[in-house]
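Worked example (supplementary).
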Amino acid sequence: MSAIDFNVIHNDRGCAARSGSLTTPHGRIDTPIFMPVGTQATVKAMTPEELCEVGAQIILANTYHLYIRPGHELVERLGGLHSFMHWDRPILTDSGGFQVFSLGELRKISEDGVRFQSHLDGSYHFISPERAIAIQEALGADIIMCFDECPPYPAEYDYVSRSADLTTRWALRCREAKSRDDQALFGIVQGGMHRDLREKSASELRALDFDGYAIGGLSVGEEKEAMHRVMGYCGPLLPDNKPRYIMGIGAPEDLVEGIYSGFDMFDCVMPTRNARNGMLFTSSGTINIKNASHTEESAPIDEGCGCYVCGNYSRAYLRHLYRSGEILASRLNTWHNLYYYLSLMADARKAISEDRFTQFRQEFYAKRERQPTIDR
Amino acid sequence: MSAIDFNVIHNDRGCAARSGSLTTPHGRIDTPIFMPVGTQATVKAMTPEELCEVGAQIILANTYHLYIRPGHELVERLGGLHSFMHWDRPILTDSGGFQVFSLGELRKISEDGVRFQSHLDGSYHFISPERAIAIQEALGADIIMCFDECPPYPAEYDYVSRSADLTTRWALRCREAKSRDDQALFGIVQGGMHRDLREKSASELRALDFDGYAIGGLSVGEEKEAMHRVMGYCGPLLPDNKPRYIMGIGAPEDLVEGIYSGFDMFDCVMPTRNARNGMLFTSSGTINIKNASHTEESAPIDEGCGCYVCGNYSRAYLRHLYRSGEILASRLNTWHNLYYYLSLMADARKAISEDRFTQFRQEFYAKRERQPTIDR
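After joint prediction of all chains, the assembly is encoded as:
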């Protein structure tokens, strides 16, 4: 018995894109879906109510950060992550692997797990697959992730191969360690930019029968073309009847390519982080609100956008807020960008339901006067 | 014809406190009222809708800051301050005087006005009474203030005396310069901590028949006792039938003392600024959310508070957000503090309407285990 129930509602007749419904202990999610990132038990600058208003159905929280501060045991004592952060819809936690491996010199990998130093105070910690599951069980997300090794890019073929094998052995240990019935566990396919390694990893993980499958190790410095190519051949490697998730992706075009390749779930800090830096998404590309060209501009960020920000504020005001270092700048920019991302997902779902995702993808690029990075 | 209409609804039978109704071009205000400060055309960390939700009826914006950035002419071209910042309720702008005088070495005062350097780029500017009015007319607030000199504290009696005289001459020039019929102009009584100077200033300004009267030059470093004493004797110096405003005040007890002395309007950065530093107001005093004692505390800031924050978040979560430097910390803390201030005003109005403001004041101090600074 899985804690989640996934159903493909419609397979687009013209491509691999599909729409679906994912039911979790905290409610139902329409797929394809984008998950805003709430690293420290808050999606930066947003309240939970605002996340609902922009169309968020599930959010991601980072296990590493919450383990370090305030600590998973404290979160558990306060009723778990949903209660702690006042968000009663679905949550997915990553395993902490990606963050731990990002620590570079501060960590050491062995068969058993990873020893690392906190980025906050330098204190020593050890996370094994079993420990990653225990921490995620304490946090209490609806979907939890296997502890994986995310190899750097570029890396030697042999390193990536051994790393993917380690990730498979850790995935088995994660499955064995899992004790809660009300959480779903996803496996993470590794293998870098090597098709044979991705195939081997996917095949071995499929044999372990996870509740869902993710592609890890993308957006680590590779070219867009490589990223989109990996997406393209990885989609078909994963079971049709399970949710497929590309981790840490991406820009709007990456989401479009991911959906086109048959993926259902995405997460990325891009809409929120870029918002705080003044970079805003529109249907015809990005703008930077800092630019002097917006000084006297009474128009909103995007004339065609239906969000609260575009309905009430001029670019001139947003530029003033940004230049003045006002908190409201981060708030309104984040609001708009998340609305943009989640509307893109809603539009994609509609296009799939009408068997026109291929056309949707073409129009997406045409509006931006761009081309897909790879022709397919 | 005044642009505003003020009516005293009820004089408390036990003290000088009164409740009233102030009608402006952008709507009606219940008095006594606290005005959240929106220095740079935003009350820091809050949207206009949230300001309504916490009970804000009028906000204050700072002329100096908006003159410097983005510039009053830009605001005017974008439809005025209400439209620019998406706030359609009343606004009061200060004259810029207080900020300009706070610049210290960067400014030089003459009979004609003040020459000063921008705190942002060191550029030179000159503001005269006429210019202060022109800037405020461009911004378009409902209530604008005379350009006054706010003397430092402590200052020689002779300096304060000459300064108050200058403020009176400038007040006349402001009245003469004013050209818009849809803005009310308030005079500002100066005179430091000297009763005779305050009496002279009030008397001279009353002769100029302003739409309302403010007490300036408080909360400039003096003891609380001195501040409350000045409030106590200044209230009766001002007309009964005009709104009475104490500028830049204050802590909750200062508002209670101000209301007790017959004042109707208050503004201060304290609830918003202190919120961003983790200091929160409760019915039994202040707490600092940073304190380790809140680490595991599942209770809200104030059990008796009806605000969104106290209804949904624990002290433990708020402490986590604060320690993590999250924007949501500033948001939720500000939300609660403004709700506290505006609820205090609503409770005060109710007490006045029931002739029990003296008792309200006693209970206010008793809950905090404190005493009024001066017995009266």
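Two points are worth noting when inspecting this output. The mean pLDDT of chain B is 97. Chain B is about 40% helix and 20% strand.
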